[in-house]
Amino acid sequence: MARVVAHLGRPETPQETADRKAESSRRYRSSKTFRNLIAALLVTVAVVFVVVAGVPRGEPTPPPAPDVPALAAGIEADLGRPVLSPSLGDGWRVNQATIEGVGGTEAWTMVYVRSGESGFLRVAQGFDADENWVGQVLDGTRSAETVDIDGITWNVYRPANPSGTGNIDYALATPAGPDYVLVYGDAAPETAALAAASVTSQIEQLREVP
């Protein structure tokens, strides 16, 4: 016996029964989709939270320092003559080592900095260079004195306007066979001398290159 619907006051017709069930199914599916959407959003938020929480905090890890001896050996093999590989000792690290060009001259240049302090020191080997290259790097500064370091005579440069030479206020330069070696930066003269002394044997080898 068909059930009587209160608001109709009579039994449902087969079509009304079908319509009522269809609407009930539609509402159920709609509510289920909404619940699924909420659940998916909650899962997404949880995943994002885990990812963010897992990201390490603090200072980023600095990139590894260039391997100067290995790079120098590779360049040496290409050029067929000695290539500088300085050693400044404890407290100094190299943060750049590359071949760069100044005034049409290519130079193997290493940039050293002291850990925890300001200041820098560059050691450069200008390939097939002369004193004119030094003048280009040092903005025309001329040498007025020399110093002997480990048996090598170096020209001393004291730029009068460091701001015009990239904060360089002291430099040492000496010919080395076909090349020219330049040690320069804003480090103390004693530190520049230490760097110069560390490449004495390589300069002597270069001076023997025909």
TrEMBL record:
Segments traversing the membrane: 34-55
Keywords: Membrane, Transmembrane, Transmembrane helix
Compositional bias per record (Basic and acidic residues), positions renumbered to this chain: 17-26
One Pfam family of this chain: DUF4245
Database matches in InterPro entries: DUF4245
Protein name per the record: DUF4245 family protein
Keyword Transmembrane helix among UniProt keywords: yes
Region (Disordered): 1-26
